[in-house]
Fold:
Amino acid sequence: MAAESKSRARRGVEKSEILDAAFHLFAALGEAAFSIRKVAAVIGVDPMTVLHHFGSKDELLRAIADHGLRSVEMPAATQDWRGDLKAVGKAYRTLAHHHPRVFPLHFRYNATGPADHISSEIVYRALRNAGLSDESAAGLGLAFYSFVLGFALAEAEGLLRPIGPAQETELNALDPETYRATRELIPALQTLDPNAAFDDSMDVFTAGVAALAKFGPSTVSSADCEAKCA
Amino acid sequence: MAAESKSRARRGVEKSEILDAAFHLFAALGEAAFSIRKVAAVIGVDPMTVLHHFGSKDELLRAIADHGLRSVEMPAATQDWRGDLKAVGKAYRTLAHHHPRVFPLHFRYNATGPADHISSEIVYRALRNAGLSDESAAGLGLAFYSFVLGFALAEAEGLLRPIGPAQETELNALDPETYRATRELIPALQTLDPNAAFDDSMDVFTAGVAALAKFGPSTVSSADCEAKCA
DNA sequence: CTCTTGACTTCTACACCGTAGAACTTACAC
DNA sequence: GTGTAAGTTCTACGGTGTAGAAGTCAAGAG
Structure:
């Protein structure tokens, strides 16, 4: 159409259209094979047009990371702080599952989009509801964040799958004495369920937070807690 | 020297010498500015020589990641499972602190060098000493691993520093109602100590593991544990 | 209407990249 | 000597990000 070609010429392609194409291309190809020129080819435009809208490839990658983060909907805070923490973790995990190639970008560009503030607000609120002090809530909130991102990143990179025959033989080649625990855990590692592992670790974390809130930092670090609990 | 030039010509530079130069160059420049050609220039050799020894740039990066992992000495397992877990965490954190640019490579190339097996053996052994079942130890071991790597990675990327004036004004611009917890934690975030945050989270994790080992998975996830502990 | 302006696109060009393939050099076995 | 094999270097190709100039076109001013 003349109108479309005119429009195309006038203000070119929408910036959001470029970002969309770039995001999907990145998600499909991965970082190594991703390039500005390929994005431009997909939407039928000069590479410099893409660059003009984002300033540099680095800024484009940052925008891609932000775009991914914006696509996940964060849960609303409730009164159940344990459930809230799990919900935040689940949100990041589904993000990692949906776009595993894009996910690592969130670490490189310490993405602080709106979605990020929402999720951290939920985490902070949950930890305070659990009864932690401000200092503990701040530090443990960031630690929790690191854990969730680290777990999701590990899943995205394929590090948390049940081990296959290749790894089994590799582990079996280890010295049975020095690597006794590892070798005895091979059956458990073969039937590993990432979801169960995540749920377990969330339970562990929340139980630990509850203990910290109740007994304070000095007791929770030692074995005294167990004595108290007995 | 004639002898040296002959030796250089005969079997060229040692592979380890190339790897050393590559590692330090990568640690200094970061991935974006790192290139095979620069490595070759540093040691005065043709770029193709570097490539010949490692096959591809990807293999070279993998070797760099392995080299970094090998440089950290893992602690020996003791009877104190809590201390062992902390020691493993500390080892990875110091690795991240020493070579922050190299550290992210450990995630991309799910590095399974000898040091990796040693550390996971320590983790598995510790969790079993804590009294966990094989299934729990396997899942939580990997989760612990993800946490430690995620925390160290966050530190390496500079995400865990106390917030500065720029971030403070950014947080203060948030809606005071929806981001109440975040805004009230600003003072705590300004004086954040990564070491304390890590220690706290380790205490939380070990306390949670102890509770899981004592009460089982069904109770630890609810509030019953606190009731028991009271 | 013309002229200007300013945003957007495109063209051209450059330096750099990873690496395939051939050619050269050297050490050593016979 | 004559292989032979390993290691090095040269050359070349297609691809990359992007600087800078040039082109295109809608919209407003006179």
Remarks:
- Chain B has a mean pLDDT of 88.
- Chain B has two domains: 2-55, 73-220.
- Residues 6, 9-11, 35-37, 47-48, 51, 56-57 of chain B lie near DNA strand C (CB under 10 Å from a C1').
- The domain at 2-55 of chain B is CATH 1.10.10 (Arc Repressor Mutant, subunit A).
